[in-house]
Amino acid sequence: MIGVTGATGQLGGRIARRLAASGVPQRLIVRDPARAPELPGAEVAQAAYGEHAALLNALDGVDTLLLLSATESADRVSLHKATVDAAVAAGVRRIVYTSFVGASPSATFTFARDHWHTEEHVRGTGVDFTFLRDNLYLDFVPGFVGEDGVIRGPAGDGRVAAVSRDDVADVAAAVLVSEAHSGMTYDLTGPSAFTLTEAATLLTEAQGRPVRYEPETLDEAYRSREGYGAPPWEVAGWVTSYAAIASGELSAVSSAVEDLTGHPPISLANYLAKT
């Protein structure tokens, strides 16, 4: 039995649908059962991250758990740790966790530090694991563009090897049903790394309106985003995602998507042509 968290979301839903299409029995662990997708061979159990008693019940009989990283929050790491502990207590034998490329305690992207702390906690439990370290999602790139047709951020001339959620879902579905990935960490990227100037050119062609990239300094980026009224940790995450591009931490291209799925990852140009 495979347990799937986040099945009501964009990535978790994609993975659950792929497992169902392959006839794999799964249990969808969701906060709101009314929002769970109706899939053949899928059970539904109610539990939220960090709810120990509910998770013990929801994970009873689950062998492999797909742990999608929780929505960014000030206490995300503690929620991850509590969920991992409940999974181990429930008898889960393997955790497949969606992490982030370059996860480390000193990563420029502050949310990547959360992923490192979660990975370390999983390792410390002694449970079997596979870490899928996703790059930024291609799906988010069109959202970088402001209403005025400008992408603004402190990314400099750095490159990002962004990956589509569909490709991540294909990898996750393959990894979940195989015992061949014990203790492995995979960087999941697109086929190439591009600058935001190059992304703007492709967006211009795809959307039929001018899009351009204007680099910001870190100070300018923080000031421009503080006006949204978001908490400081969230603003830092927004800004440092661009800074991580500038630093080169998101530029490495991996063959993992093709190695694990048998098909090459989609490029930004092809992604935009499909949407």
Which helices and strands appear, and what pairs or packs with what?
Elements: E1 2-5, H1 10-21, E2 26-30, E3 42-46, H2 52-58, E4 64-67, H3 76-90, E5 94-100, H4 110-125, E6 128-134, E7 150-153, H5 165-176, E8 184-188, H6 196-207, E9 212-215, H7 218-226, H8 232-247, H9 256-261, H10 268-274
Parallel strand pairs: 1-2, 1-4, 2-3, 4-5, 5-6, 6-8, 7-9
Helix pairs in contact: 1-5, 2-3, 3-4, 6-10, 7-8
Summarize the structure.
The protein has 275 residues and is α/β, with parallel strands linked by helices. 41% of the residues lie in helices and 16% in strands.
Overview of this protein structure:
- This protein is α/β, with parallel strands linked by helices and 275 residues long.
- 41% of the residues lie in helices and 16% in strands.
- It is built from 10 helices and 9 strands.
- It has helices at 10-21, 52-58, 76-90, 110-125, 165-176, 196-207, 218-226, 232-247, 256-261, 268-274, and strands at 2-5, 26-30, 42-46, 64-67, 94-100, 128-134, 150-153, 184-188, 212-215.
- Strands 3-2-1-4-5-6-8 form a 7-stranded parallel β-sheet, sandwiched between helices.
- Helix 1 (10-21) links the parallel strand 1 (2-5) and strand 2.
